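Summary for the lay section of the report: proteins are chains of building blocks that fold into shapes. Here we show the chain for Translocon-associated protein subunit delta and then a coded description of the shape we predicted for it.
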Amino acid sequence: MLRVVAAFCLIAVTLASRCESPKHSATSYSTTDGFFHYQTAFIAEFTLTCANNVKNMPFYAVIGDTVRAVAISEETSKHQVSWTQEHEKSGAATYEIKIFDEDGIAAWRRDPSVKPLFTIEHYHSGLSRKPFFSSETIALLVTVFALYYAIRQKTELTA
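The coded shape description reads as follows.
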């Protein structure tokens, strides 16, 4: 009898920790400056509500073939996943961030065709490798040098 009660309790806990009918809204960001950064940083932040009001449940993100834990902010109740990647691998592309709960990630590890709770798509526009000096700075330096040269020539002619 004790085994039956323990089995029912285990099933109840398992079912209660599943996110039913997830609704989400997401924002994402990635660095595009290739001059000052050694790697490209990606951040995806989302809010999530489940129909069964599950709280403090761990979520996981799959980016490519890599599983990453999703962090949650206690103040804002927002979830966040972030990662970095070498510039050479961070071309302009759309990255799919698949979000799973514990049961989903366990199933995904057995079979990668398992459908996630939801997917966040982040478009990364690629890197911009701007020169160290802007064209405005160079134009200003040329103007200052020309003005200095003109004033110097004028003082030599009048002296």
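Put simply, here is one thing we learned. Residues 134-159 form one domain.
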